[in-house]
Fold this protein.
Amino acid sequence: MNALQPHHSCDRLASYFWSGDAIRSRSVSDVVLAGVLDIPAPPARLSVDWDREISLRLGLDAGDVEELSLTRARLRWPDYKHCVQAASDWTRRLGLQDVLSSSDVALMVCRGAKYHHDGTQYGSAAFCNLFLSEDRGLDVHFPVTDQRIPLVRGTAVIFDTCQPHAVIDRRSTGFKMADFPPNRDCSQVFLTWELSIENACLRHALRIALDIDAATASTLDEQQVWLNGARTSVSPDSGRWCQPESSPTR
């Protein structure tokens, strides 16, 4: 269990997110909280069910991230509660109290993941991800700080949704489609919780400041991320922030 150290940049990032009926502003954190938790392997029949759903219903391509049915999985997953308990115990040790109990949880699967941020949809949240699959030679990579975390069963990470991230081959320097050929077993199943960024304990842990640009926030009508005063996006191959758009959406 550790907090990976942030890399300080002169670039000024800001997230504009919905808070009730209003858009608020906040800073974007490059802190990543990570650990490896002791969780049991999913039962074989559940893994077979996931494989069937992934291949027949989802048809994942390289870089895709999709949702699996948590309700269905829990019927065949007696140790689900132990996985949740392990994550809850970990977040309490980080000083986040009972943040998971008030957070929405979903079951997801990815076949790698292209570089992206989730600030346009989940700007009001941080993610807590708990990986359930065995080590398949993949890392989650945060390119702003060049932090790489091996994905093994029990890997847990908490990070700002606006921070660029990807799931890439451990031997690779970036996301490459060729690293995920159809015959490679590289699907990663994980639980993910949406943690409210307005939770004071979470903001303290991620070093996030609220209301850093209230004037701009008051002019916006959708969630977005800005870099140095203009709306920006992420290169899906490298994770670098793209040149800010010249005419920010207002």
Observations:
- The chain has six helices and 15 strands.
- The chain has one domain: 31-206.
- The first strand starts at residue 2 and ends at 4.
- The helical segments are 44-58, 70-74, 80-93, 119-122, 200-206, 214-217.
